[in-house]
Sequence to fold (456 residues):
Amino acid sequence: MTSQILKFLLIATLASCSVGPDYKKESIASPATYKAVGLSSAPPGGNWWASFSDPTLTSLLTKARQANPQARAALARLDQARAILGLKGADRLPSLTTESLGVRQKDTRRDIFELPPSPYNKYRSALNLNWELDLWGRVRRSVAQQKALTQATAADYVAALLSTKAEVARDYLALRHLDSEVSLLSNTIKLREENQKLIQVRVDAGTTTPIDSARARSQTETARAELYRLQLRRTELENALAVLTGSNPSTFKISASSPPRTPTIPAGVPADLLRRRPDVAATERRLAVAAEERGIVIAKYLPNVSLTASGGFAALSTSDLFDSKSRLWTIGPNVTFAPIAFGKRKNEVNRAHAAYREALENHRQSVLSAFRDVENALSGINNLDRALAAQAKSASAAREAARLIKLRYQTGLVSFFEVIDANREHLNEQRTHVQTKAARQQATVQLIQALGGSWK
Fold:
């Protein structure tokens, strides 16, 4: 009898299959080149953030990768997913449990067997085995599903890390360009204070009116008020960087310096984008998760066959427990099946198919969003390069206009009001030029993030 059972189980295991449709990766067409810039060369590998050639930025990014709370939380979620994958994989193997029992009990005498004197003691020590024969692939699909979910969680971690790095880079570059504006305003205030002294000398000499002196002081104080506002914003960015790198803002400090150089980031071919973007990879893996769920639901309503076995000793006294005559064993298949599900099977299958369609559309949306992000970044770089060139010319023209108007004022041809207006225009053009440079570097960070960073 035992050999017949084992023969049946062997045949059943060999004949096992996986029910439900298998997952096939969606094929998504990619254009030959990006619309904004016709680049077709492959991007370089390695860490793109190093292309800024700024040691402070590199150090901040390293700290963010190691100590950022959100990134560390994403890593913890990945570790959880890996552990669950190990648990799912263990379901493919038999489960063994040991049993030790010692009870005192009283049975009913309305039974068909002759009972010992009641109450009596009962002892048992056994090893139990249970092994689900994965005839329909439920366990295999569950493992494949968790593997895909673990891969999606890994992509989520990379996406969180990339987002954190991009935020660090944006805040750092913004801070550095604020340093440029602070330096510009500080120099402007010094020049205006010197100009204010010269105006006062002319007022004392009677060659101009006190109105010019008041206007000169107003111009200086206006610049000083704006300087304080910039310093406030710089402190806020410094504190934001502290949090992003897992540091306490009260002890975090970044010394003033000039902005790093603006690197050139090749966009590569569009087909590479879907390989590099972690968010696209995550939605594709979750599509695989939904695909496996369809087979799991179908297998749930098919007969479940398990091999159960038990072996050990049982006796009514401890002295007889491990005697050879006290041995016992059982072995045999256990089949469970719900022949009537009252509509549950149909609705669960429909739910699984609908969940797959939802995951498919989410994946397609992530692909479209990825191309949108790259196109926006490339267009921003292209247009900001042109704006930067025009702004440089505008700032140069404003500087020359301010110089000429100052000469005319010194010869008495124009009023001091025109000098103030020209100086204000010159300062505005200089600050706009700095801000345009900042926007151009922010567009570079946007492109790096849109391309998936250094993730492969």
User: Anything to note?
Assistant: Confidence is low (pLDDT under 50) at residues 38-45. The chain has one domain: 20-94+140-303+345-450. The domain at 20-94+140-303+345-450 is CATH 1.20.1600.10 (Outer membrane efflux proteins (OEP)).
